[in-house]
């Protein structure tokens, strides 16, 4: 559809952002033939692009403007003043088109936190039906199941008919997938349960968002938009950058959106709306759109030359991200890792042809090896963990008395002390990492070290450090200032240091240990610049490792937090923007607190619930899940 034709229409619903969440909502709203839905997406339609379709070619999309917003943070004091590159999908399907394809699940307490913070209807049991609604779980063959040890998966808790396909790769089994679960058991990890039960402690192979029949990425553009693309009541305009919403004041003192201004091919257009505008721009673009529209802090808006429509200084605040810290280990030559694909053009070309022609080979199989560890698992020798944790939270609160009006830090501290809750996600990547390349994500896994490597990484699960995203100009083409404030809260740095020391010890357990190379002194060979004998570090030394070797896990949330307004909120529990009659935000920016693991699954669930809220519907728990709960 041409931009001029799109702008001549008046839609019942306009969705700003055709990404992970936006296309879910577009598909669900368009199920009603009596309503019209228009979607504005800043990126292009790349359905059928092999760099997106191939499950393990995602890095080839990073730092390319035709796929990626190429965002950069401001220098981060907590990581030695370094700038971090933030990959965010600027393409139909958003970040679900360019992510790792890893598929995790929030814990029960993660989501019950949301309800406890004042968001009725957003607890674990409330969202569980929406996880199943978007998902089709494809169990592995019996032969693969034995290799990857996926007995922890409980099919009754998984979706059966959803658009997004979830599976384990049958086409390219890798050595680390077999070694990892046994290594974790030998390290003292518990036998894992299905994360859908509410807890995910243990080491396992987790599934990916890959369609096992086509061996292609399963993401919102392919599985929500494409099946609905020909509906007469659904219109999509790509390469259309939203500038701002057009408002008129109501007699009640709030404002209503009457249209959306956007740029297409350098020309400005306005499209009108009858019912609602739903902003699904993600954690960076959603607060940017609100501020460009005059909703935000007066000081931010005045500085950018924008008139204040709704005074809400919470817009763009509460930005939280998962940090990821890694150490690489050299692997014996007989155990292949991804280095060979990038160093030997012939082998790389063969692997690419294997995927393109036969849908097989290493580009079919993204990372599956991960685990979740509690504080007691991470550091069983920590003296009085309750006092230690609460002291760090209390000292920060005393120094920053107005930083947490919702009371999230004490709530999260309680969760960190819970032996059923993970404080770290541990990930094994079958490639070495160059963590000096924080500002250029596409170079993170390009390094000059000889041989084969793995990276043991630890990722935060629920950070207490909170930063901001704010515009610095009224120009919608200019990226906002992104400040995740990494390690601004001392508890985050403390837990990250303990976690990286723990992950390093995993290299000493079989069967992983026998796969790793040793130097002439019998020591493991690592990427650390100043390794200690036996890889034994003090807490302060570990903190320096963290500061030097931390990157983003690409899981930012919270910049339009769903909270009571007086406690830092931008949207209410129906996703409506405070001070407006017909504007909602539905994406990861509304998460009030962080959750463990890879967040794309929760974005889908939140979008499904958001669509039901807009339509006034409810998705309920199925009977087989009730039976399972009764059994356990």
Strands, helices and their partners?
Elements: H1 3-8, E1 10-16, H2 20-29, E2 37-40, H3 50-53, E3 71-72, E4 85-86, H4 108-116, H5 124-134, E5 135-138, H6 142-148, E6 164-167, H7 175-186, E7 202-205, E8 210-211, E9 216-217, H8 220-225, E10 234-237, E11 240-249, E12 255-264, E13 267-279, H9 282-292, E14 295-296, H10 298-303, E15 310-311, E16 317-319, E17 323-331, H11 339-343, H12 345-358, E18 369-373, H13 375-378, H14 385-399, H15 408-416, E19 424-429, E20 452-460, E21 467-470, E22 481-483, H16 490-505, H17 539-548, E23 550-552, E24 583-585, H18 600-615, H19 623-631
Parallel strand pairs: 1-2, 1-13, 2-10, 5-6, 13-24, 14-15
Antiparallel strand pairs: 3-4, 7-18, 8-9, 11-12, 12-13, 16-21, 17-20, 17-23, 18-19, 19-20, 21-22
Helix pairs in contact: 2-18, 5-18, 14-15, 16-17
Report on the structure:
- The chain is an alpha/beta fold.
- The chain contains 19 helices and 24 strands.
- The strands form seven sheets. Strands 1, 2, 10, 11, 12, 13 and 24 form a seven-stranded mixed β-sheet that branches. A six-stranded antiparallel β-sheet has the order 7-18-19-20-17-23.
- Strand 1 (10-16), helix 2 (20-29) and strand 2 (37-40) form a beta-alpha-beta unit.
- Helix 2 packs parallel to helix 18 and helix 16 crosses helix 17 (539-548).
- The longest helix is centred in the last third of the chain and has 16 residues, at 490-505.
- The chain starts with a helix and ends with a helix.
- The model has no long low-confidence stretch (mean pLDDT 96).
